[in-house]
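During the reporting period the student researcher (J.K.) took over the structure-prediction task from the postdoctoral fellow and processed the backlog of single-chain submissions. One of the processed entries is reproduced below for the supervisory committee.
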Amino acid sequence: MTEIHPIAHFRSPFSSKFGIPKQSGLVQDVRGQIVFEPAYRTKDALRGLDEFDYLWLIWHFSANKHAPNSLVVRPPLLGGNAKMGVFATRSPFRPNGLGLSSVRLERIEWETSQGPVIHVLGADLMDGTPIFDIKPYIAYADCHVGARSGFVDRTAIARLDVCIPERFRPIFSPEDLKTLCEVLALDPRPHYQDNPQKVYGMPFMDKDVRFTVSAEGQLLVVEVV
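J.K. obtained the following structure tokens:
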């Protein structure tokens, strides 16, 4: 069996799994960078890549410390109440722990102390995630108009009403504040948590954003540390 090793690692505003969008593209403005391992820090490896708008990233769910113990999972989109086969979901708890994400190529920074760095938008990767491969997105092969999406077609993505008080807004740039609002609107809480009194904490851009969620579905930021 051939062994695979990381070609790069991802840089992200998310330092833990908590709060990361559950699919790539759900928050289109999340910024991230792909930093290559020394053996791949060459412009030749990226020749022609800047002619594409989107990339596929194949990566490792490196934050999962335990091997999966079941081939049946409970998708968060279904509220954690319905069981599905792991291969009918995007669950991170998979036999080989591989993730697949489609991200927008923003730009390539060709000259850095770490070689060429790829800047992307819309990723759902944690900071430090190992990347095994990068492939260009090709519209005629990768886009299937009208394709069915199973239970996803029948279940709308719910979004919370987010309130960030004025005193916390200057902590972030306007761009990061917009991204934070979109991330929080997706409800970072575990699907089994629904306690209006509980204060949750989510790391974002080296800050700890603490919030509550009311029974009416409003998320209120109460502290930024």
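The committee noted the following: The chain has two helices and twelve strands.
J.K. will present the remaining backlog at the next meeting.
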